[in-house]
Design brief:
Length: 538
């Protein structure tokens, strides 16, 4: 039963964010803190503020002790809904000058505690919402019923915090910058052959980008140095064969290697790992926007695609401008961070033909799709793409979360766990796992949704699924003819393995969860189209 409506919720600019960041605690006008969880992290902050504020509730609670009372979660939600209806998206109050700094620190700290890759701060018409991207999954950190809360964070980030920014904050203009913050980071360490968690305070580096939106905007933080070291090619989840082929290419004199995938699929990490292995006797230059890793022996140039070479001029300091400049610098190996258009693609192929070993990335959903993207979307002539010995290696990569080895479930345990949930995806896959794995199910594992201290909801870290085309003259003939269907059949006949094949091998080994993998790999268990059409019968 809810407390008397005569009881007043303490409601001001400091307390409201504390309430909504966890949605577990609120404070009443008599100084009592109601909570649905005695371990809620915000309780100490709420109590301290109540007893030390000389202005809160007319100063009547200053210096007085506070108490904590356990209530149902529904009661907390009742009070929070009251606050939301009262504010209705309007500003509850302005934050003090120090508040944005503390809030930003808390969100970044909360994100690194979950091993995040990104933090998203979104301002909507009636609210500010903060998410963390953890191993590809978005997790809600906080939701505040006040859009100006986020606007003030944006202003603080670009007016006071960020360096290397495009400009001071203007709500209608996109912006980019760099942020550094000292945070407590969690590392998994091995002590006496046993894994444990170690907390280390260190400076963290973040790329921050802002984009305006209708009735709001969004700020995205990308954690650049989440890994203290660039991972080795052998540690990314590629097969030994994949690694050997890339190393063979790395030692060639010239040609082009393209690594494709969606945003956040580890393309740049794979390139950094390959480039980091190149000996100092070869001259390496990268063009990036911006550099995301510190390479040991490379000259890393940050391009500025929106900055003119000369004031008022049309030529910009982008990939093409710096690519021409590097012609005078005796470069052996060159990496262009991304192919974005026909001009960039033509510059890449030109450099590959003039004797450099070229690396780049491209956004596609398959290795085969690189040809279509270059020829049909960027309008690069097929004859250029199929030039003899130019295109050497095309790679597609996607990342899939790994099951936590400390708490994962066997098929038998998963079957018991989900026995009363016949509509769950796990239950359906348990009925199909034999067919997918050809009966090799001894080592398969499912994520444990309860998780443990080493993971988030039963998964921790990601592994790569890879498909690789080592181009030969037969492949180039299919590119000229633009016969993708015939090309795929020819590749399969030669033994080409796609990401589905790689996924199945990792499901069999117990590395990844089949349900998680099915969300990353299309047609993991193909269904005949005739069977689909039968469901349309009337």
């Amino acid at each position: 039963m809810l407390p008397s409506q005569a009881t007043v919720i303490l409601n001001d600019k400091i307390l409201i964010p504390l309430y909504f960041e966890e949605r577990k605690s609120v404070a009443l006008s008599d100084g009592t803190v109601l909570t649905s969880d005695y371990n809620a992290k915000k309780i100490p902050q709420i109590r301290e503020y109540i007893s030390t504020s000389k202005t809160l509730h007319g100063g009547s609670l200053f210096g007085k002790p506070t108490s904590v009372k356990m209530v149902k979660a529904s009661e907390i939600e009742h009070y929070l809904s009251q606050i939301e209806s009262q504010s209705n998206g309007a500003s509850t109050a302005s934050m003090t000058d120090s508040e944005p700094s503390k809030r930003l620190h808390e969100y970044l700290q909360s994100g690194v505690e979950k091993w995040c890759s990104d933090i998203h701060i979104e301002v909507h018409e009636n609210s500010t919402v903060i998410y963390a991207r953890v191993d590809g999954r978005r997790i809600l950190l906080s939701e505040i019923p006040d859009p100006t809360y986020g606007d003030q964070l944006f202003s603080y980030i670009f007016n006071s915090k960020a360096t290397e920014k495009d400009a001071d904050f203007v709500a209608k203009d996109a912006n980019n910058g760099h942020v550094e913050e000292i945070l407590m980071c969690s590392d998994i360490v091995i002590i006496d052959d046993v894994q444990d968690i170690r907390k280390v305070k260190r400076k963290t580096s973040w790329r921050v980008a802002y984009v305006p939106a209708k009735r709001g905007g969004r700020c995205t933080f990308r954690w650049l140095d989440a890994n203290s070291e660039i991972p080795k090619l052998d540690d990314m989840g590629w097969t030994a064969g994949h690694v050997a082929v890339l190393r063979d290419y790395r030692d060639m004199a010239s040609g082009v290697c393209i690594i494709s995938g969606k945003t956040g699929s580890g393309k740049t990490t794979a390139l950094a790992s390959a480039l980091n292995e190149i000996p100092a006797e070869r001259s390496v230059v990268t063009l990036e926007d911006p550099p995301e890793f510190n390479l040991k022996k490379a000259i890393q140039i940050q391009i500025k695609p929106n900055t003119p070479v000369k004031e008022g001029g049309e030529e910009m300091r982008g990939f093409n401008y710096y690519s021409k400049q590097t012609l005078r610098h005796d470069v052996d190996v060159e990496m262009h961070g991304e192919v974005r258009d026909k001009v960039g693609a033509m510059e890449l192929t030109r450099k590959g033909e003039t004797g450099q070993l070229m690396f780049t990335t491209l956004h596609t959903s398959s290795a085969l799709g690189i040809a279509h993207t270059l020829t049909e979307q960027m309008h690069v002539p097929a004859a250029v793409i199929a030039a003899p010995a130019l295109m050497r290696l095309w790679i597609y990569q996607t990342l899939v979360r790994k099951v936590c080895p400390h708490c994962c479930l066997t098929a038998e345990q998963a079957s018991e766990h989900y026995k009363d949930q016949q509509d769950s995806k796990v239950a359906k896959w348990l009925n199909q796992i034999d067919e997918l794995c050809n009966g090799e199910t001894k080592n398969i594992r499912f994520r444990n949704p309860k998780g443990c201290k080493f993971c988030v909801e039963g998964e921790r870290g990601r592994t790569a699924l890879v498909e690789m085309i080592v181009l030969d003259d037969e492949d180039r003939e299919f590119i000229i003819r633009k016969d993708n269907a015939g090309w795929l059949r020819a590749l399969k006949a030669k033994g080409f393995k796609d990401v589905r094949d790689h996924a199945i091998s990792k499901i069999k080994s117990g590395t990844i969860d089949v349900v998680t993998a099915s969300g990353k790999v299309n047609d993991l268990l193909p269904v005949d189209s005739a069977d689909i059409y039968k469901t349309f019968e009337m």
